[in-house]
């Protein structure tokens, strides 16, 4: 479908990130509504972002993105009118596509799970739903990072824990890395800069050289050297297990929200 205008209902963290990403990295125009004037104020002045006076203005766009909190989705949808050409994309975690279909009939519906990195066009977005809506979501979110579809909607709950919550886990690692730098004597600003450069440089190397993380780790770990000594300590503290359990717990919570 030909997309010119995207309506975004909800200008909180995720809705705002999507709007800023569209403004900075695409040619799409966005119409944004939120009950919070403060949230809308943060988007004022963004190129190709128009502030709507009511949510129906967003629902009348080529594509409508519902980016309110899960508990508000039903209330918001009950106030909107859609037609057979409407496309509704929900960002709300845990709200099944079928429930959204029931309240936005006869629109084409899909559900996406992006993360906040869509704001800088480096997001990760999974998608499930009706064909027309999925193709619209692909056109929008592939311009904001990595986009893929899943054949089972339950996978989006798992993705909530993996990529949705993942940035918080990654940020915690960077913070701990910087704290370690301070512990061994570096000024905090330098320690934080080193931590971010090491992490971003490692990721860039893995991507550009297409090296598996395990192989890269082996390349850095000399026999009897400093790296293997540090890795041994990570194993003592069950670093890998902690990461896996954190992601599994986040995914489990997403399942609970979906059920509730």
Describe the protein.
The chain has 260 residues and is α/β, with parallel strands linked by helices. The protein contains 12 helices and 8 strands. The chain has 2 domains: 5-155, Rossmann fold (3-Layer(aba) Sandwich); 166-259, Orthogonal Bundle (ProC C-terminal domain-like fold). It has helices spanning 13-25, 37-41, 55-59, 73-77, 97-104, 131-141, 154-164, 166-183, 188-209, 213-220, 226-236, 239-259, and strands at 5-9, 29-33, 49-51, 63-66, 87-90, 108-113, 123-129, 145-149. α1 links the parallel β1 and β2. α7 crosses α12 and α8 crosses α9.
CATH class of the largest domain: Alpha Beta
Work out the count of structural domains. 2
Average pLDDT works out at 95
CATH topology of the largest domain: Rossmann fold
Strand content: 15-25%
Biggest sheet, in brief? 8 strands, mixed
Find the structural class using helix and strand composition: alpha/beta
CATH H level of the largest domain: which superfamily?
Answer: NAD(P)-binding Rossmann-like Domain
Number of helices: 12
Order of strands side by side in the largest beta sheet? 3-2-1-4-5-6-7-8
Uncertain spans: none
Examine the secondary-structure arrangement and name the CATH architecture of the largest domain.
Answer: 3-Layer(aba) Sandwich
Short description:
53% of the residues lie in helices and 15% in strands. The chain is an alpha/beta fold and 260 residues long.
């Amino acid at each position: 479908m030909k997309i010119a205008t995207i309506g975004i209902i909800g200008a909180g963290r995720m809705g705002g990130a999507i709007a800023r990403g569209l403004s900075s990295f695409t040619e799409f125009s966005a119409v944004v509504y939120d009950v919070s004037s403060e949230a809308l104020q943060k988007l004022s002045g963004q190129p190709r972002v128009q502030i709507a006076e009511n949510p129906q203005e967003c629902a009348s766009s080529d594509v409508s993105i519902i980016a309110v909190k899960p508990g508000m989705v039903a209330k918001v949808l009950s106030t909107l009118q859609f037609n057979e050409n409407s496309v509704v994309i929900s960002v709300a975690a845990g709200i099944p596509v079928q429930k959204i279909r029931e309240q936005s009939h006869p629109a084409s519906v899909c559900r996406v799970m992006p993360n906040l990195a869509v704001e800088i066009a480096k997001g990760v977005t999974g998608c499930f739903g009706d064909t027309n809506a999925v193709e619209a979501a692909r056109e929008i979110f592939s311009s904001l990072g990595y986009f893929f579809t899943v054949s089972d909607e339950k996978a989006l709950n798992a993705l909530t824990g993996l990529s949705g919550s993942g940035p918080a886990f990654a940020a915690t690692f960077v913070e701990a890395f910087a704290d370690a730098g301070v512990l061994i004597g570096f000024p905090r600003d330098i320690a934080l800069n080193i931590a971010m450069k090491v992490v971003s440089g490692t990721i860039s190397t893995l991507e550009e050289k297409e090296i598996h993380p395990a192989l890269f780790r082996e390349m850095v770990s000399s026999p009897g050297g400093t790296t293997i000594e540090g890795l041994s300590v990570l194993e003592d503290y069950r670093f890998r297990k902690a990461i896996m359990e954190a992601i599994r717990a986040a995914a489990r919570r997403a399942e609970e929200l979906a059920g509730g």
